[in-house]
């Protein structure tokens, strides 16, 4: 049974009543995280504002249909809306190619899991951002959103095999980039 006095329930009640201060509170609480999510999927920042605005409009219009499922369900719901808006944007305005890029640069040694402790998070996120569109979208959905290949295939209208292939290629490319970065740092010392 949900606790009626929880801050999340109180905010939700105010959101359903369409209180402007509640919507401002929701925006202030989650806009930074939602912006970060958008940045994981998009190379440029130009359209993030539009995507977030469209997402909040959808939230506003559909808050009545939201079903509270326990603590954190509101956050999960708004994140799902933002991801769906990003994917819709990518499908509509960006050519999402599922790369068949030759991997001649990426050798077998890059199949191993790299040590990430000496790679700054900002650098790693930049490497992810620079992946080809198809690799990046599948990687983000699988790694950050915990989607299965079946779910990804449905979201992107591709086969499960294509999803798995794109993820594998994304990982290999990232391992290669991480190893290159570490080698460069090592040589710079």
TrEMBL record:
Domain named RNA polymerase sigma factor 70 region 4 type: residues: 122-174
Region forming the signal peptide: none
UniProt KW keywords: Sigma factor, Transcription, Transcription regulation
Location of the RNA polymerase sigma-70 region domain: 26-92
PANTHER family the record matches: RNA POLYMERASE ECF-TYPE SIGMA FACTO, RNA POLYMERASE SIGMA-70 FACTOR ECF SUBFAMILY
Similarity comment text for this entry: Belongs to the sigma-70 factor family. ECF subfamily.
Protein name as it appears in the record: RNA polymerase sigma factor SigW
Naturally occurring in which organism (per UniProt): Chryseobacterium vrystaatense
Species classification: Bacteria, Pseudomonadati, Bacteroidota, Flavobacteriia, Flavobacteriales
